[in-house]
Amino acid sequence: MKTTLLMATTLDGKIGRNSSHFVDWTGKEDKKLFIKLTKDAGVIIMGSNTFDTITEPLPHRKNIVMTRNKSRKSYDKDLIFTDDTPENILKSLDAQGFKSVILIGGSQINSLFLKAGLINEIYLTIVPLLFGTGLSMFAQEFDTKLDLISTKQMPDGHILLRYKIE
Q1: What is the CATH number of the domain that holds 12?
Q2: SS (H, E, C) the chain
Q3: What's the domain range around 148?
Q4: Which one has a higher pLDDT value, 72 or 66?
Q5: How many separate domains does the chain show?
Q6: What pTM did the predictor assign?
Protein backbone atom coordinates (compact mmCIF):
# COMPACT_ATOMS: atom_id res chain seq x y z
CA MET A 1 0.00 0.00 0.00
CA LYS A 2 1.52 3.29 -1.08
CA THR A 3 0.92 6.14 1.38
CA THR A 4 1.46 9.69 0.22
CA LEU A 5 1.45 12.64 2.61
CA LEU A 6 -0.12 15.65 0.87
CA MET A 7 0.48 18.96 2.65
CA ALA A 8 0.67 22.68 2.06
CA THR A 9 2.81 24.82 4.34
CA THR A 10 3.64 28.45 4.70
CA LEU A 11 7.21 29.51 4.06
CA ASP A 12 7.80 29.28 7.82
CA GLY A 13 6.60 25.66 7.82
CA LYS A 14 3.10 25.96 9.28
CA ILE A 15 0.17 23.84 8.08
CA GLY A 16 -2.31 26.08 9.89
CA ARG A 17 -2.58 28.79 12.53
CA ASN A 18 -4.27 26.31 14.90
CA SER A 19 -6.08 22.97 14.79
CA SER A 20 -9.35 24.52 13.59
CA HIS A 21 -7.85 26.70 10.84
CA PHE A 22 -9.49 25.90 7.48
CA VAL A 23 -6.97 25.63 4.65
CA ASP A 24 -8.29 28.48 2.50
CA TRP A 25 -4.88 30.09 2.01
CA THR A 26 -3.49 27.89 -0.76
CA GLY A 27 -3.88 28.65 -4.47
CA LYS A 28 -6.06 27.21 -7.22
CA GLU A 29 -3.29 24.96 -8.57
CA ASP A 30 -2.72 23.42 -5.14
CA LYS A 31 -6.44 22.75 -4.78
CA LYS A 32 -6.51 21.12 -8.25
CA LEU A 33 -3.56 18.91 -7.27
CA PHE A 34 -5.33 17.96 -4.01
CA ILE A 35 -8.50 16.97 -5.86
CA LYS A 36 -6.63 14.99 -8.54
CA LEU A 37 -4.37 13.05 -6.17
CA THR A 38 -7.11 12.26 -3.65
CA LYS A 39 -9.60 11.17 -6.31
CA ASP A 40 -6.96 9.06 -8.07
CA ALA A 41 -6.17 7.25 -4.81
CA GLY A 42 -9.84 6.94 -3.91
CA VAL A 43 -9.21 7.15 -0.17
CA ILE A 44 -7.99 9.83 2.23
CA ILE A 45 -6.95 9.52 5.85
CA MET A 46 -7.12 12.41 8.30
CA GLY A 47 -7.46 13.25 11.95
CA SER A 48 -10.68 14.43 13.56
CA ASN A 49 -9.55 18.07 13.78
CA THR A 50 -8.82 18.07 10.04
CA PHE A 51 -12.21 16.52 9.34
CA ASP A 52 -13.91 19.09 11.56
CA THR A 53 -12.38 21.92 9.50
CA ILE A 54 -13.77 20.52 6.25
CA THR A 55 -17.08 19.61 8.02
CA GLU A 56 -18.26 16.89 5.62
CA PRO A 57 -16.82 13.93 3.71
CA LEU A 58 -15.07 14.79 0.48
CA PRO A 59 -17.11 13.29 -2.38
CA HIS A 60 -15.97 10.44 -4.61
CA ARG A 61 -13.42 9.28 -2.01
CA LYS A 62 -13.50 7.06 1.05
CA ASN A 63 -12.84 9.35 4.04
CA ILE A 64 -11.10 7.69 7.00
CA VAL A 65 -11.10 9.84 10.13
CA MET A 66 -8.81 8.76 12.94
CA THR A 67 -10.24 9.67 16.34
CA ARG A 68 -10.11 8.50 19.94
CA ASN A 69 -13.72 9.65 20.40
CA LYS A 70 -15.72 6.41 20.25
CA SER A 71 -19.00 8.34 20.12
CA ARG A 72 -18.28 9.56 16.59
CA LYS A 73 -20.32 7.43 14.20
CA SER A 74 -21.21 7.56 10.53
CA TYR A 75 -23.91 5.95 8.46
CA ASP A 76 -22.22 7.06 5.22
CA LYS A 77 -20.28 4.17 3.63
CA ASP A 78 -17.62 6.66 2.51
CA LEU A 79 -17.05 8.16 5.97
CA ILE A 80 -15.37 5.95 8.56
CA PHE A 81 -14.47 7.04 12.09
CA THR A 82 -11.85 4.77 13.65
CA ASP A 83 -9.47 4.48 16.57
CA ASP A 84 -7.53 1.72 14.82
CA THR A 85 -3.76 1.84 14.27
CA PRO A 86 -2.30 3.16 11.01
CA GLU A 87 -1.05 -0.36 10.20
CA ASN A 88 -4.50 -1.92 10.64
CA ILE A 89 -6.20 0.85 8.66
CA LEU A 90 -3.87 0.24 5.72
CA LYS A 91 -4.35 -3.55 5.96
CA SER A 92 -8.11 -3.09 5.84
CA LEU A 93 -7.92 -0.73 2.86
CA ASP A 94 -5.59 -3.14 1.05
CA ALA A 95 -8.09 -5.95 1.64
CA GLN A 96 -10.76 -3.69 0.08
CA GLY A 97 -8.64 -3.37 -3.07
CA PHE A 98 -7.12 0.07 -2.58
CA LYS A 99 -3.54 0.40 -3.84
CA SER A 100 -2.71 3.84 -2.46
CA VAL A 101 -3.94 6.34 0.12
CA ILE A 102 -3.47 10.04 0.64
CA LEU A 103 -2.73 11.25 4.14
CA ILE A 104 -4.00 14.81 4.67
CA GLY A 105 -3.10 15.51 8.30
CA GLY A 106 -3.01 16.92 10.82
CA SER A 107 0.27 16.86 12.63
CA GLN A 108 -0.67 14.10 15.11
CA ILE A 109 -1.84 11.74 12.37
CA ASN A 110 1.15 12.58 10.17
CA SER A 111 3.40 11.71 13.11
CA LEU A 112 1.69 8.36 13.75
CA PHE A 113 2.20 7.29 10.14
CA LEU A 114 5.79 8.54 9.91
CA LYS A 115 6.76 6.92 13.23
CA ALA A 116 5.34 3.61 11.95
CA GLY A 117 7.37 3.95 8.73
CA LEU A 118 4.24 3.98 6.59
CA ILE A 119 4.73 7.14 4.50
CA ASN A 120 6.33 6.52 1.10
CA GLU A 121 6.13 9.96 -0.50
CA ILE A 122 5.47 13.56 0.42
CA TYR A 123 3.91 16.17 -1.84
CA LEU A 124 4.54 19.54 -0.24
CA THR A 125 3.30 22.86 -1.59
CA ILE A 126 5.19 25.83 -0.20
CA VAL A 127 2.88 28.87 -0.09
CA PRO A 128 4.47 32.34 0.10
CA LEU A 129 2.88 33.28 3.43
CA LEU A 130 4.21 33.64 6.96
CA PHE A 131 2.06 32.74 9.96
CA GLY A 132 4.84 33.14 12.55
CA THR A 133 3.22 30.63 14.89
CA GLY A 134 0.98 27.68 14.27
CA LEU A 135 0.91 23.95 13.63
CA SER A 136 3.90 22.11 12.27
CA MET A 137 3.57 19.23 9.82
CA PHE A 138 4.55 16.80 12.58
CA ALA A 139 3.90 16.77 16.32
CA GLN A 140 7.03 14.81 17.23
CA GLU A 141 10.74 15.01 16.63
CA PHE A 142 12.01 12.96 13.70
CA ASP A 143 15.28 12.46 11.88
CA THR A 144 13.96 11.22 8.54
CA LYS A 145 15.94 11.54 5.34
CA LEU A 146 14.18 12.41 2.10
CA ASP A 147 15.13 12.09 -1.57
CA LEU A 148 13.91 14.89 -3.83
CA ILE A 149 11.93 13.49 -6.76
CA SER A 150 10.80 16.73 -8.38
CA THR A 151 10.15 20.44 -8.01
CA LYS A 152 7.61 22.54 -9.84
CA GLN A 153 6.99 26.27 -9.77
CA MET A 154 3.29 26.95 -9.58
CA PRO A 155 1.36 30.19 -10.14
CA ASP A 156 1.31 32.85 -7.41
CA GLY A 157 4.82 31.97 -6.27
CA HIS A 158 3.90 28.53 -4.93
CA ILE A 159 6.45 25.72 -5.17
CA LEU A 160 5.55 22.04 -5.26
CA LEU A 161 8.15 19.66 -3.86
CA ARG A 162 7.86 15.91 -4.15
CA TYR A 163 9.99 13.66 -1.95
CA LYS A 164 10.50 9.96 -1.46
CA ILE A 165 11.23 8.79 2.08
CA GLU A 166 14.52 6.87 2.27
Answers
A1: 3.40.430.10
A2: CEEEEEEEEECCCCCECCCCCCCCCCCHHHHHHHHHHHHHHCEEEEEHHHHHHHCCCCCCCEEEEECCCCCCCCCCCCEEEECCCHHHHHHHHHHCCCCEEEECCCHHHHHHHHHCCCCCEEEEEEECCCCCCCECCCCCCCCCCEEEEEEEECHHHCEEEEEEEC
A3: 2-165
A4: 66
A5: 1
A6: 0.94
